[in-house]
Amino acid sequence: MRKKVAIIMGGYSSEHKISVKSGNVVYKFLDSNKFDSYCIHILKDKWVYVDDDKKEFPVNRHDFTVALGDGKLFFDCVFNAIHGSPGEDGLMQAYFELLGIPQTSCNYYQSALTFNKRDLLSVLKPYGIRSATSYHLNIGNEIDEDAIIKKVGLPCFVKANKAGSSFGISKVYDKEKLKLAIENAYKEDDEIIIEAFLDGTEVSVGVIKHQGRTKVLPVTEIVTENDFFDFEAKYRGKSKEITPARISKEQEKKVKEMARLAYDVLKMKGFSRSEFIFVGDEPYMLEMNTTPGLTEHSILPEQAQAAGISLAQLFESAIEEILQENR
């Protein structure tokens, strides 16, 4: 009997459109002989099932069901394709746990922790996972430019603490532009992290649960035409994503070990994609994404395909893992 899968997409953040693209790719590639898939759009003003004719049916938030004709549509599981809030910060995970509906991403605590860059890096530091020197600000805090520069130096990166797809990120070379970058970051979040610039090769490492085991995927090297891997570089063709990365065997071994260690220490499940920069042969972690992009040209799907895992297999495996876990 085919399982009914709700593919949630959209969300409340600036990543909404990217999430819809990811969700539609999951819908396209899930095997219709094994699954009945439904596109569920999660928006601030409405939660709706959108059918192939673009007709909308409201989702009952009390039990996550949809009224169709004389019947009620229940779901066996949820495929989470929401980037940003509420799909990547723990809110949807907690909601589905309360309802007892399995979902493909990590649990709510891990999701909330990894979505908070500065908390994530602080938790992983005792396990030997390096990160850049950083300075933290919350909205309303006094901005002491001299203290910031003394700690992290110039150039530095100013980032929204809880945001993805490089929204709210600036690279700052001059003291005079620091406040403007901070204001830009606050447009995305009320917390920011300011990090020292690390000069080295940037890579991305995907880790998944596949056939009951933790699997580290081939490493991707990020080469951008812009000053850093910003939104334009990620989504408008201003970068090259090279898989496998052009790094030494020693670097590959170390960064894969770090990505697996972070995944295991945090008791993750589902997909993760962690970003690192090499300083010499040592990988420094930037962040971890727990609902990474899933389009045909996104990094994690390309890594999976380099490992011999098709998109259909990647998505099906995620569903089978959670159904097996909840039997």
Protein described:
The protein is an alpha+beta fold. It is built from 10 helices and 17 strands. The protein has helices at residues 16-29, 91-99, 108-115, 117-124, 145-152, 178-186, 231-235, 249-265, 299-306, 311-325; strands spanning 3-10, 35-42, 47-50, 56-60, 65-68, 71-73, 77-80, 134-138, 156-160, 170-172, 191-196, 202-210, 213-216, 220-224, 239-242, 272-279, 282-289. The strands form 3 sheets. The protein has a 7-stranded mixed beta sheet with strand order 6-5-4-3-2-1-7, covered by helices on one side. Strand 16 and strand 17 form a beta hairpin. It is globular, with a radius of gyration of 20 Å.
Gyration radius over CA = 20 Å
Indicate the percent of residues in helices.
Answer: 25-40%
Strand order of the largest sheet: 6-5-4-3-2-1-7
**Total number of beta strands:** 17
CATH class of the largest domain: Alpha Beta
Find the CATH superfamily of the largest domain. ATP-grasp fold, B domain
Shape: globular
Strand content: 25-35%
Helices, by number, come to 10
Structural domain count = 3
CATH architecture descriptor of the largest domain: 2-Layer Sandwich
Q: CA-to-CA gap between the ends?
A: 15 Å
Largest sheet: 7 strands, mixed
